[in-house]
Amino acid sequence: MVVTGAAFAKKARGTLTAGASSVAFTTSVTGAFSSTITVAPTQGATVAIRATDGASVASASFTVTYSAVSTAPTPATIAPIPAVTTPSPSSATAQPPISMAQLRFGVSTPGGATANAELDAVASLAGESPSIVLSYYDFGQAPPIADLDSVAARGATSLITWEPWRWGGGLDQPAFANNRIIAGDYDPSLRQWGAALAGWGKPVLLRYAHEMNGNWYPWADGANANAPGSSAAAWRHVHDVVVAAGATNVQWVWSPNIPYTGSTALSGLYPGSAYVDIVALDGYNWGTAASWSSWTSPGTLFGPGLAQLRALSPGKPILIAETGSAESGGSKAVWNRDLVSYLKAQGDVMGFVWFNHNKEADWRINSSLTSANALAAALAERR
């Protein structure tokens, strides 16, 4: 198979991998390369192809076909492809690298951890690849090792949101009440996840039972017949079982919603500094997208919650685990710039994760051209 690529570093050494085969290449003065690599002749097999020069990474998947002859089957000729890129050979540009800035940029997209086309689109909009990829799993799902592999292949870190319920089951799910988790009903699954994450071995961020200070999830104190204090107790139990299974590579992210009038006090929900590595906040500027909302600046949105996190967990790194802005009610472009500027000025904030979904509002980076351009410019300025 002949593989060609473009838009890599000029005169750089790199590695091309296809299945179990690997060859070295050197790019030209224009950043292009062309290499021949052997692919096993397994009819119908899917072969993942990956090229990296150490700074840029691109990949694609192809199906092997062959024509039978009088002896052994041989691979059919596969036409040269314009570039090796994620996720299909139709794109001819390697994605921009991950920034080494102190304030990390992350993203969640509708397709999740393996939606490389969506992640590539975000990278193109932002002018840099996300260094954190946020994805969601409920208690009925197996450990997402393939998802972790996909994110790691991009050079990024996985932020797993692990939700103790069954999606679509509503707020009242007695089987997933905190006292059932504390009693050990889900210990076999917890041990399975712990062993799988330990076996995977690389650093992973695990955000269990997020936004527990609200009233919209069945793990919140007061919801689903949960007693006060049970959210923190369930967290400690889950932590201990997963760690006992060997998952010392996991960093535990405790992630309430930004405090609001009527929300549960964070002090009664915090499981303790021995059980938490990173503290986080979820917060959105709803603008006038809802009847109850108004335009809110990043400082007003996050300031009170950040102060509470610092009081609860002095010295812990802080992550904005979900954020985004609506368009209605103000200038989203200005808000995007202000967000990056505000968070950059917070020395203990390690990064933010943009919720790139068109859901309750159009939170997407490219809900407008001005929004996309402003975020890209703000990220460039903070590098």
TrEMBL record:
<dbReference type="GO" id="GO:0006080">
    <property type="term" value="P:substituted mannan metabolic process"/>
</dbReference>
<dbReference type="InterPro" id="IPR017853">
    <property type="entry name" value="GH"/>
</dbReference>
<dbReference type="Pfam" id="PF02156">
    <property type="entry name" value="Glyco_hydro_26"/>
</dbReference>
<dbReference type="GO" id="GO:0016985">
    <property type="term" value="F:mannan endo-1,4-beta-mannosidase activity"/>
</dbReference>
<protein>
    <submittedName>
        <fullName>Beta-mannanase</fullName>
    </submittedName>
</protein>
<feature type="domain" description="GH26">
    <location>
        <begin position="84"/>
        <end position="378"/>
    </location>
</feature>
<feature type="active site" description="Proton donor">
    <location>
        <position position="211"/>
    </location>
</feature>
<dbReference type="InterPro" id="IPR022790">
    <property type="entry name" value="GH26_dom"/>
</dbReference>
<feature type="active site" description="Nucleophile">
    <location>
        <position position="322"/>
    </location>
</feature>
<dbReference type="InterPro" id="IPR000805">
    <property type="entry name" value="Glyco_hydro_26"/>
</dbReference>
<keyword id="KW-0326">Glycosidase</keyword>
<comment type="similarity">
    <text>Belongs to the glycosyl hydrolase 26 family.</text>
</comment>
<keyword id="KW-0378">Hydrolase</keyword>
